[in-house]
């Protein structure tokens, strides 16, 4: 069931050209921008790879449904969908931030004044489908989870990685990162 690196690259190249939800960039542009932000910030290679692959579940959901978009009133649970395809390929230090990046958005809305107002309209809409802002108890539980701080950093890159026409390294550049951290 796990994908190999070539299959991951092919999936990003083929399905990644689809528009990223209601954002003004493609799935691939979003992934590359997110990875570039993590790399520029000096993140470990595992975090750069998590940033690159954090929305891979959207592409797998689209492939499964044979459409580029999930029903508008339902969350596709993309943060979980990719995990069986990546488990055994990458370590938990890559998988956990992917799994937690949606919860990181819910957490940041709880703890950071003004965070919600800075979200794109599409991120605000998906937040509601994803369960809304965390309660205090949910936020406390999230903050105690391993890799939660990494997921919060990934979430911040995710929020910024939506710039049309942004010049970033190509997918081949990030193959080396994936090869470095692959199991």
Overview of the structural elements:
By secondary structure, the chain is mainly α. Helix content is 64%, strand content 0%. The chain is built from 12 helices and no strands. The protein has helices at 5-15, 27-40, 45-53, 56-65, 78-81, 83-86, 92-111, 115-118, 121-129, 136-143, 148-160, 171-181. The longest helix is centred in the middle third of the chain and has 20 residues, at 92-111. The two termini are 15 Å apart.
Helix and strand sequence:
HHHHHHHHHHHH
Return Rg in Å.
15 Å
Low-pLDDT sequence parts: none
Largest sheet: none
Strand content bin: under 5%
Distance between the termini: 15 Å
- State the helix count: 12
Overall mean pLDDT stands at 91
Class by alpha and beta content: mainly alpha
Strand elements, count? 0
Query: Fraction of residues in helices?
Result: 55-70%
Structural shape: globular
Secondary-structure blueprint:
Layout: H1 5-15, H2 27-40, H3 45-53, H4 56-65, H5 78-81, H6 83-86, H7 92-111, H8 115-118, H9 121-129, H10 136-143, H11 148-160, H12 171-181
Descriptive labels:
64% helix, 0% strand, 183 residues, globular
Provide a compact summary of the structure.
This protein is mainly alpha-helical and 183 residues long. It is built from 12 helices and no strands.
């Amino acid at each position: 069931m796990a994908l190999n690196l070539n299959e991951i690259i092919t999936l990003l190249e083929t399905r990644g050209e689809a528009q990223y939800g209601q954002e003004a960039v493609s799935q691939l542009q979003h992934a590359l921008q997110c990875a570039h932000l993590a790399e520029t910030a000096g993140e470990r290679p595992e975090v750069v790879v998590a940033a690159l692959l954090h929305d891979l579940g959207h592409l797998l959901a689209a492939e499964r449904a044979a459409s580029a978009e999930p029903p508008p009133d339902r969350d596709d649970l993309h943060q979980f969908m990719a995990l069986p395809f990546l488990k055994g390929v990458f370590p938990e230090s890559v998988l956990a931030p992917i799994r937690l990046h949606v919860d990181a958005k819910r957490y940041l809305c709880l703890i950071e004044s003004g965070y919600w107002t800075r979200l794109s309209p599409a991120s605000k809409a998906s937040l509601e489908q994803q369960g809304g802002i965390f309660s205090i108890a949910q936020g406390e539980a999230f903050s105690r989870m391993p890799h939660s701080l990494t997921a919060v950093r990934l979430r911040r890159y995710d929020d910024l990685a939506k710039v049309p026409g942004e010049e970033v390294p190509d997918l081949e550049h990030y193959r080396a990162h994936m090869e470095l951290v692959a199991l």
